[in-house]
Structure formats: C-alpha cells, structure tokens
Amino acid sequence: MRFDVITLFPQLVEQVTASGVVGRAADQGLIELHCWNPRDYTRDRHRRVDDRPYGGGPGMVMMAEPLAGAIAAVRRQSAARLIYLSPQGERIDQPLLAAELERGGVTFLCGRYEGIDERLLQAEVEAEWSLGDYVISGGELAAMVCIDAMTRLVPGALGHADSAQQDSFSDGLLDCPQYTRPEDYRGRRVPRVLLDGNHREIDAWRERQALGRSWLRRPDLLAERQLDQRQQQLLQEFIAEYEDTRQRRAAAAESEQEDST
Ligand code: SAM
Question: Which residue's C-alpha comes closest to atom 12 of ligand 1?
Fold first, then answer.
C-alpha cells in the first residue's frame, strides 16, 4: 500500500512510520510513505507557499501553484486518488478507509493556515475527508490517523491475523472488553468465563458483550444492521443481565442511604 502526503511538515508526517504497527509494516515493505513539500515547487526566492486572502480577513491561504507542482510530481509516480483532509469533508470511518484501501494507494493533501485556494481544490481534489466536527491546525495529524488506521487493515500488518477483524467497527459493532493479568485487580475480577478455557463459551460471551456495548454506547450501529436470531438472543441476554445489575445496584444504594439516615 502506497501513501503519498503533500505537506509543509514532512518531518511530522514521517513520524507515523517511526514506531509501532505502522513502523513494522513500513520495515516489512507492506506500506510505503512518500512526503512531498509544496515549498520544493515554488518559483520565488523566498519559497512562498501562502498569501493573504482576497477580500481581507485574518490569516493566510495556501497558494495554488506550489501545490499544483507537488500534485503533478506525485501523479508522475502514483495514480492514486487525491484526498484533501478538511473539516468540511466526509466524516472518516472504518468502511470509508477500508474502501479506499481496496484502491491500492492514496494521496493526502494537508492544508495549513486558513486553508487552500478553492480553485486548486476544485481542479485537483477527488474527495474531502474530515476527522470530525472540530478544527485542527493542519491536515497532517488527520493524514497520520488515516495512515495508521488503513495500515492496520493491510494483510500481515498486525501481529495476529484476526486482530483487525476483532476491532471495533470492522463488522459494524464495538469490540468486546479486554482483560489481562492479574485475575483480581483491586477487588475487580476477570469474568469467570474467560478463565475456563471453553472457547465456544468465550466466543459467545465476546459476541454478547460486543452487541451489548454497541446497544449501550452506539445504538446507531445496531439500528443500521439486521441481527440474526442468535445475535438477538445474545443481545436479549445482555440486556436482561444489565437491567438486573442496575436494579441490584439501585436497591443497594437505597438501603445504604436508609442505613445512614
Ligand atoms: N478555515 C478552515 C475551515 O474552517 O474550514 C480551517 C483551516 S484549518 C486551521 C487548516 C487545515 O487543517 C485545513 O486546511 C485542513 O487541511 C486541516 N484540518 C482542520 N480540521 C480538520 C478536520 N477536522 N479534519 C481534517 N483536516 C482538518
């Protein structure tokens, strides 16, 4: 998988391959990262990449020409789509990233300052993606997020082949809770089922938790999918257990209050 990033801060973006999963994937040749600095495509002595906005107002705007030069240079090496990271774009999610991965490569365009001259965007950009409804200072962190999330989906990038399939959103649900040693952490115990070694029970417990967590925290995810009969049963079990625990806790809190008055 090839990632190209057009950025005024290549040293920042390159950090994404410095460690962890993405670093290993780069070392193994599963991904390639190439950064392109628009400053290298300026024609003036000062290597200017920005200018004041027409119509006045605060801040600076990235000029079209240096970016067009960088884009042309990338396109000589890659046929991938050009995606502008922008707060005005389509919200990034797992299906969006997985679909882009299928195309085999991607070029990210990172804005800075007040943004990029609109004419360059109209002429060159094929999609706009947003991290969410907030504004950050540049597209670099957004590009790094996408590179990390997409690399996790590249076959062989994760230590264990199933890891990505278990992640939240990979099958449209949240992941189940995870536990490790010790068995007892300050009075909170690991669920018994995970210690018994019965893998059918463990799988059912994990699926029940994934369904239940999604029901509790992200009901929109459940609304978007059709549960089969077994999943409906698992979810009903989770809900019954959840309601039971809630009622027992409320009763305990009430009797504690009565004792203290
Ligand atoms: N004036 C612009 C606006 O309000 O739409 C924001 C400019 S922002 C300070 C500078 C750059 O950061 C943008 O050009 C974009 O590349 C990036 N950026 C900011 N917020 C982002 C977000 N939520 N998702 C992706 N990129 C973002």
Answer: 138
Mark whether 29 and 140 lie in a shared domain: yes
130 within ligand 1 shell (Cβ under 6 A)? yes
Q: Which of 16, 175, 27 is nearest to 108 (CA)?
A: 16
Cα atoms in the 13 Å half-sphere on the side-chain side of 153? 23
Using the 3D structure, point to which of 131, 151, 171 is the last residue of a domain: 151
Q: Which residues contact 38 (CB under 8 A, 6 or more apart)?
A: 6, 8, 49, 62, 66, 67, 69, 70
Pocket flag, ligand 1, residue 135 (CB < 6 Å): yes
Looking at the structure, do residues 119 and 236 belong to the same domain, yes or no? no
Q: Are residues 197 and 143 in the same domain?
A: no
98 Cα–ligand 1 center, Å: 23
Give rounded-to-5 percent helix, strand, coil for the chain: 50, 15, 35
Q: Given 128, 151, 174, which residue is the final one in a domain?
A: 151
Residue type, 226: Q
Q: Render pLDDT for 57-116 as a digit per residue (tens, 0 to 9).
A: 999 999 999 999 999 999 999 999 999 999 999 999 999 999 999 999 999 999 999 999
Report the CATH number at residue 30.
3.40.1280.10
Q: Ligand 1, closest atom to CA 84?
A: 16
